[in-house]
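Hey, can you fold this one?
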Amino acid sequence: MSCYIRHMKDFLSDLDIEPETKEERKEVDLAIRNAICKKSTDKCNEVWKELKIWLDDTQKKKKLQSNLMNF
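Sure. Predicted structure:
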């Protein structure tokens, strides 16, 4: 499911997103996958690999932040 959420605590906290329950983490996971054009069936490590690229690219990171602010 959301193996990478724990690595994004600071990033998500800056957006006032603090998932506490398993269901909330799943919702955040799906929102992130949607934002970076990954499927819900993609393996967690594949999503995390792509997500790290997004977090390292300033424009992609801003786009991700914008998509998640509506979460």
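The radius of gyration is 11 Å. Let me know if you want another pass with a different chain boundary.
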